[in-house]
Amino acid sequence: MQPLPDSLPTDTGKVALGRQLFNDVRLSADNTISCASCHTLSTGGVDGKKVSSGVGGQLGLVNAPTVFNAALNDKQFWDGRAATLQEQAGGPPLNPVEMASRSWSEIIDKLKQDSSLTQQF
Ligand code: HEC
């Protein structure tokens, strides 16, 4: 174990893009759910529900942990099944009871039509 760093190196362009994607409902199958739907930053990074609800009101099995400082977590998810944030973040868009997209190409095809977003990438 290492002590937590006081700060992590960040790139302002990537932070802005990440903030936008975090709030982007196009990551979900029916364009209704964003990461922020369950990890609402104005309420501590959680939705305050017993279990989170995803596309079509489908219910998960556990509640949403906060995303605040998640980059500093030793492991991700309640059961620690993801070792890193990178490994974790790929899950929700394709999780059938969360954002329920069928594939990354489905998501990318939608995002590609947004020229302001492609420019930022
Ligand atoms: C439908 C609700 C829902 C959506 C949408 C959602 N999450 Fe989550 N998130 C959860 C739940 C529930 C967990 C806990 C799952 C578990 O532990 O099995 C979780 C766990 C996490 C964690 C792990 C935190 C920790 O302390 O272990 C991170 C980070 C996270 N989500 C980020 C995201 C990001 C980024 C997105 C968008 C790409 C997203 N989530 C979309 C409900 C959601």
UniProtKB/TrEMBL annotation:
<keyword id="KW-0560">Oxidoreductase</keyword>
<keyword id="KW-0408">Iron</keyword>
<feature type="domain" description="Cytochrome c">
    <location>
        <begin position="13"/>
        <end position="115"/>
    </location>
</feature>
<dbReference type="Pfam" id="PF03150">
    <property type="entry name" value="CCP_MauG"/>
</dbReference>
<keyword id="KW-0575">Peroxidase</keyword>
<dbReference type="InterPro" id="IPR004852">
    <property type="entry name" value="Di-haem_cyt_c_peroxidsae"/>
</dbReference>
<dbReference type="InterPro" id="IPR036909">
    <property type="entry name" value="Cyt_c-like_dom_sf"/>
</dbReference>
<dbReference type="InterPro" id="IPR051395">
    <property type="entry name" value="Cytochrome_c_Peroxidase/MauG"/>
</dbReference>
<dbReference type="InterPro" id="IPR009056">
    <property type="entry name" value="Cyt_c-like_dom"/>
</dbReference>
<protein>
    <submittedName>
        <fullName>Cytochrome-c peroxidase</fullName>
    </submittedName>
</protein>
<keyword id="KW-0349">Heme</keyword>
<keyword id="KW-0479">Metal-binding</keyword>
<dbReference type="GO" id="GO:0004601">
    <property type="term" value="F:peroxidase activity"/>
</dbReference>
